[in-house]
Amino acid sequence: MPLLNRLALNLTTLVAVVLAGGFIAAALVRYSPGFDSIPEDLNTALSPQTLAALHAKRNRENSLPRFYVRYLAGASRGDFGVSQSLGQPVATLLRQRAPVTARLVLWGVAGGCLLAAFLAWLAVWTRGAALSVSVSGLLLAIPPAVLGLAFFFYQAPLGLALSLGLLPRLFGTLRAIFEDCYASPALLAARTRGVGALGIATRYVLGAAASKLAALLGIAAVLAFGLAIPIEALCGVPGIGALTIQAATARDMPLLCALALAVTFLVTLVHTAGEIAIGDST
Amino acid sequence: MKAAAIAVLVIVALAGLLAPAIAPYDYSRQFRETPNAAASSQFPMGTDDLGRDRFSRLVYATRVSVLLAPAAALVSILIALLFSAITATRSRWADRGLGALTTLSLSLPWIFLFIILRAVLPLNTRAIQSILITFGLMGVAGWAWPARVFTASVRQMKQSGWLMQARAAGMSRWRIARVHAWPHLRALAVAQFRILIPAYILSEASLGLLGLGVAEPLPSWGNLLAELQHPDRVRANLWVLAPLGLLMLVMIALEALQPRAAPGQLS
User: Fold this and answer.
1) How far is it, in rounded angstroms, from Cα A167 to Cα A183?
2) Do A248 and B244 touch (CB under 8 A)?
3) Local structure of A282: helix, strand or coil
4) What is the sign of the dihedral through the CA atoms of B34, B39, B43 and B46?
5) In this complex, is the C-beta atom of A266 within 8 Å of any C-beta atom belonging to chain B?
6) Taking the model in full, what pTM does it have?
7) Out of A219, A225, A244, whose CB is closest to B115?
8) What's the rounded Cα separation, in Å, for the pair B163 and B160?
9) Any A CB within 8 A of B259 CB
10) pLDDT tens sequence across A98-118
11) 3-state DSSP call for residue B53?
């Protein structure tokens, strides 16, 4: 498929997914407990008929389609409403917390990718996969949140805990990518020509698999965000993950929905970029 | 290696099934005069801060975590199979619609999706309700990965020569599905089922640590792991680490029996 068509298709998918995500978010807010209550409910002077009329008016004004359009219009201006539990504008909360999570995820992804790549290279290059597979299997058996707690109590960097949680989730894919590269005829020919290990790694492995690795980086970022949620919540890191748990336990629907919308947008964007990167290589 | 892994899993599953016979006490029975007791002949792993026998709670927790994760995995597989059947038999629009739904589900990190769904449901529930909500939601929220795998396989089948031949021979849709398609999908379904079980065990553990999983007083590996948030208790009694040890043992055993997972699937 030509590049422009593929870009258009991916962008259409991105917009459709974000709109659908926004609709679900709006529906959750609209039908959340307490949304239909109005301040006049507490006014004992009003008759039941008056209250019923006020409720009917509010329901008409807040039918799901109207509410959705208003919600999207607000979201497009960066206005996601006000958090019910924290009493602050949701946009402000997102602006304050996002850099903390971004930093943690960045360190986690960088460390996780490097460690997983090293283990995968060890497994493929030395043909002795036992050590790599054992390390990866052992790390996969530990809940990332427990790793986070252990690092927290020993005052070690949480980014490293995230890296170790991410490592086994990337190891298998990286190993498969490296196996493909190392089995290629071009690499075999280079070996017979006496090209050194560094040359092979940079020209015939990293060069050949660059687009796949770029796509994997996107997946790694999404995985790291998922792993960061419990780590942040348990270790008191004031990021998006901790905010999500706070919103969930307080049933703070405006905050939760804004988070869902923002995360859906970012994750779909990352996936789309990955798909375009892979498409370019084929 | 595989024989050892199977043996471990059989022993752990049997311990879970026979929990009432193995555990010396009920999981919720409190010995109020001996909270935080050390390991002894009366309490093989000591007691927790409410005076409950750790060993009994671990045995009952095994039943909850190990036996319900496959049930949740089965729910995911059944939903995914239903969606792939719709993809196979209905219009192109249904196919596209379900494809978009799958993309939307896969666009969110699994735990994030679960937290959103969990927030919509009541948080203060009885223990049994919390089990159904936790594992039910896992089953419902985890359908997208197997659905993508099944749908891809169904699409491949729809273009295969043997299917055209079967159609040309006048075979009914039901017979094609039963005789030709199901044997292909069955192998995929078993592989996906095996991938989902450890993912759900691990997810329950993470959710339990966050207080969003199975509710007290019913024990699960997740809510037993919540004690790890108190390092003083770990230092005082190393048996607090027993649920983590058992969880790791089961995960390693399951890992030894795994087909290779797709990237990102064990998230």
Assistant:
1) 23
2) no
3) coil
4) positive
5) no
6) 0.81
7) A244
8) 6
9) no
10) 999 999 999 999 999 999 999
11) strand
